[in-house]
Write a structure and sequence with these properties.
Length: about 110
C-alpha cells in the first residue's frame, strides 16, 4: 500500500513524507521492465529499505555493531505480510552469521 504509493510518486498526506524516506531504497532497487510487476518492485523496494535501515543502525551505533559481530545480539529486520498476517524476519546481510539459524524465522 504505502510503499507502492511512494514508488508511484503519489504525493498526498503522509505519503509525501514517506516518498522522501523511501527514495534511497527506490534508487538502489533495479526497476523492472515497463511490463514488469509493479507490486513485485514495491516489495523489493521495501526489502531494500529494511536492509538500509539495518545498515543505518549498525553505522550509527558502534556498540550494537560490535555486539552483533560477536553474536551477543542480532540486527534483524522484518516485513509484515498483509495477506498472511505473518512477519518475515531476516538478519542484517553483513552480519548474518551471528544468530543461530533456527532463531530467525517468521511469526
Amino acid at each position: 500500500g504505502a510503499v507502492k504509493g511512494a514508488c508511484d510518486h503519489v504525493e498526498m498526506g503522509n505519503l509525501t513524507g514517506l516518498l522522501k524516506k523511501i527514495q534511497p531504497a527506490m534508487d538502489k532497487t533495479p526497476q523492472p521492465p515497463s511490463s514488469g510487476d509493479a507490486y513485485a518492485w514495491a516489495n523489493a523496494v521495501a526489502v531494500t529499505n529494511v536492509n538500509l535501515v539495518m545498515d543505518e543502525i549498525a553505522a550509527k551505533s558502534p556498540i550494537l555493531k560490535e555486539m552483533a559481530s560477536t553474536g551477543a545480539i542480532a540486527i534483524v529486520g522484518g516485513m509484515y505480510d498483509v495477506e498472511s498476517g505473518l512477519v518475515n524476519f531476516f538478519e542484517h546481510p553483513k552480519l548474518q552469521a551471528t544468530a543461530p539459524a533456527d532463531s530467525i524465522s517468521h511469526v
